[in-house]
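S1.2 Input.
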Amino acid sequence: MPLARLLQSFKEGHVQAAAPIQETTNSGGFLSESYIHYQNIALTLESANLRITSVADLCGLSIAAFQTARLVLGPEFAAIASRCKAYTEHPVQNIQIRLLFTGRVQVIVGDRRILYHLIRNEAGPIDTGEAVREWQIFDPTLYSVAFRSERLRDDFNYGLAEIRRNGTYRVILDRYGFDADPGE
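S1.3 Output.
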């Protein structure tokens, strides 16, 4: 389900665990060790001739981000998003790809792997052949699982440590093209 709805469902007690959760979006659960990190980037069309070397450079641009980006990408990004008249968040991220490639926004923000996957596989009838430019202006975002039960969290952490130790974790990351994760 979309992250905002997942957070609400967890907060209301309708689910026993929720992921991916960042510490800033945790609604009172017991957080596991980080099991994955996302490397969020800003992505623009090469033809736009933009130069984005910091989060501050986003000010004044039209931006489409993933849902809850203003909560997880830090206070500087949140401040820019709140001042930006042309800022939107989307629970269905392939909409971001369509907005960028049809020229309706100048910048999209999301996890590098997810955005490139969507460009290659999920853009629908939109031509995504135009060159893009990637701007690495965000620190990696560490994600955990929030559990209602401390015991379930501890069991998860034990299992995570075990698959990291025996190599299964690395096999899973490699299968999906993920870089090394903190804690690996």
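S1.4 Remarks. Strands lie at 17-21, 30-31, 36-38, 40-45, 63-66, 87-90, 107-111, 132-135, 141-147.
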